[in-house]
Amino acid sequence: MSREHVAAEVLSSPEPGRSTSRYLGPNWYASVMGTGIVANAGAILPFDVSGLKDFCLVVWLLAAALLVGLLIATAIHWLRSPQTARSYGHDVQMSQFYGAPPMAFMTVGAGALLVAHSFLGLRVAVDLDWVLWTLGTITGLITATLIPYRLFTEIEVRPDAAFGGWLMPIVPPMVSASTGALLIPYVASQSGRSTLLYGCYAMFGMSLIAALIIITLIWSRLAHFGSSNSGRVPTLWIVLGPLGQSITAAGILGAQAHLAVSSQLAVGMSIFAILFGVPVWGFAMLWAVLAASLTIRTMRKKMPFSLTWWSFTFPVGVTVTGTIRLAVQTGLPAFRWASAIGYVALLGAWLVVVVRTSHATGRGLLLRPPAPGSTTPAASKVSRSQS
């Protein structure tokens, strides 16, 4: 029997004598990402709104508490239900969401610098960001290589397999690029700043090109098979993640380049941020309209709630931060107002998902194994080596 068959059996049947409440997959860390980005985007919003800074600090503290709570719960889960915990890495759906923990680390880390530096003190905020960025970057590079490798070598993929979850393991390096750029001013040596800058650009390319390939596959799947399954419609919003995050990364790297490279190169990198960011922003808006249309269409048919609804938050949030970067770089009021509209939409989505998540968690619905195929038929659970 293949490992994928074993994983399917474990996920659908709790360990003997164990409560289904012991089911705690890596997809839970999307709640940290979605909460943290509300604080981070609000902190850099190009409007002076009374009470916004205090609100962002409270939300960041909530995200940090969620991260700590999930890390403790995950450790307990591995100790008490090791068979179930190990099975997530062999499940064709859940394994994709191992990209969420690295992004959760870096989202909270960036928030320490952007949101909580006055509360924590700058030195503590910088140190905390360094720790979480390093941890997120290392684990993110692992997911960006290991999860696609398993997809290529161990899983028999069906023609309608591609879904937004495939982006999760390869987006963390892009988050490393944008959040790492924030740390460039805090590197003492010139060579260190240059190394970090070019390293961030390398991770930018690593994630961007892989994301473009996957987005093409998702478009092809939608054209040939439609949205297929209401449970995976929310994951269409994940496409905005690499798009918005790449605009953000290019913008921050361009703004920080003068600290690390010659003035001539810095000017070029700053220009690249606009020449790259505006066209990608245009496609992001197109995708947002398509994703919204498909979501509304599915909601009319009563789309079931699940943790995939957190896809409505972080991807929208990084699109907002990308829009804010374009507003700063171009000086156009249109981008400023677009960022405000996007942030209001982000707040609305976040509030809805928080309420639904709290309600479903209280009833124990999110602590049970998902029904087979409830998210996506993604791939047959057959190892290529066994077929």
Search tags:
387 residues; mainly alpha; Glycosyltransferase; two-stranded antiparallel sheet; 13 helices; 66% helix; globular
The portion of residues forming beta strands comes to: under 5%
CATH class: Mainly Alpha
For this structure, the CATH topology is Glycosyltransferase
Q: Terminal Cα separation, in Å?
A: 11 Å
Apparent shape: globular
**CATH H-level superfamily title:** Voltage-dependent anion channel
Q: What would CATH call the architecture?
A: Alpha/alpha barrel
**Total helical elements:** 13
Element order: H for helix, E for strand: HHHHHHHEHHHHHHE
Tally of DSSP β-strands: 2
Mean pLDDT value: 89
Q: State the share of residues found in helices, binned by percent.
A: 55-70%
Largest sheet: 2 strands, antiparallel
Q: Which stretches of 5+ consecutive residues score pLDDT under 50? A: 1-21, 373-387
Query: Which structural class is indicated by helix and strand composition?
Result: mainly alpha
Measured on Cα atoms, how large is the radius of gyration?
20 Å
How many domain units?
1
Widest sheet, order of strands: 1-2
Any overview of this molecule?
With 387 residues, this protein is mainly α. It has one domain: Voltage-dependent anion channel (Glycosyltransferase), CATH 1.50.10. Helix content is 66%, strand content 1%. The protein contains 13 helices and two strands; from the N terminus they run αααααααβααααααβ. The chain has helices at 3-12, 30-43, 52-80, 82-87, 100-114, 117-120, 122-153, 172-181, 190-225, 240-256, 263-299, 314-330, 333-362, and strands spanning 156-157, 379-380. It has a two-stranded antiparallel ribbon.
